[in-house]
Amino acid sequence: MDRRLRVVLAEDSVVLRDGMAELLGVRGCEVVATAGTAPELLAAVVEHRPSVAVVDIRMPPTHTDEGIRAAVEIRARMPEVGILVFSQHVEIAAASRLLADGAAGIGYLLKERVARTSEFVDALHRVADGGTALDPEVVTRLVRGGGRSRVDTLTPREREVLELMAQGHSNRSIAALLVVSERAVEKHVAAVFAKFGLRATDADNRRVKAVLTYLAESGSRSLSTDEPAARR
Q1: Is the pTM of this model over 0.90?
Q2: From 55, 73, 137, 182, which residue has the greatest number of CB atoms within 10 Å?
Q3: What is the pLDDT of residues 158-185, one digit of tens each?
């Protein structure tokens, strides 16, 4: 990537924060501000209007959901700023809150994936461009649970394609990952649109709507079982 991204980085561990800032700088990103608390994050985003805000879900003083609450507030006040949150473990309640108003310009990665610098920077660019970057484990956890929904009408291959769409992959990338033709992927995507009742219009982005339907229907089924664990 040769486009320089402006990033605000929120992480309460000084060592981790400085390390991430240095790695991002080496990979061509400009860390315009760092923050150790949610109020500092909000102030920095208001001042610098970055391309992306990178936010640890758990921040002082309680280390529960300060980061996700700040991310939701940034999303509401400055929707043009991409949001990429990260955490040690999958927290479905937090993911559902962040994705409640749409998946465009949103990312959620586990810290182990953030440590893989190339994947992290690629996710930042996708989020800054209005795409979605969800950790595969987050996507897997979101689709757990019972109850019939439109997601359950998908074939295994259609669901696999949709999961990769939710992670932010293009049709070409999905074709390469599944070792099929791009035309085959297009047919699966079209089938997903049809089963979700998404008709083509000039104003609507069916790809984003399909991902939102997938996350909303899948996430709502697992939220009731996962939320207590997320609050521990």
Answers
A1: no
A2: 55
A3: 989 998 988 888 899 999 999 999 999 9
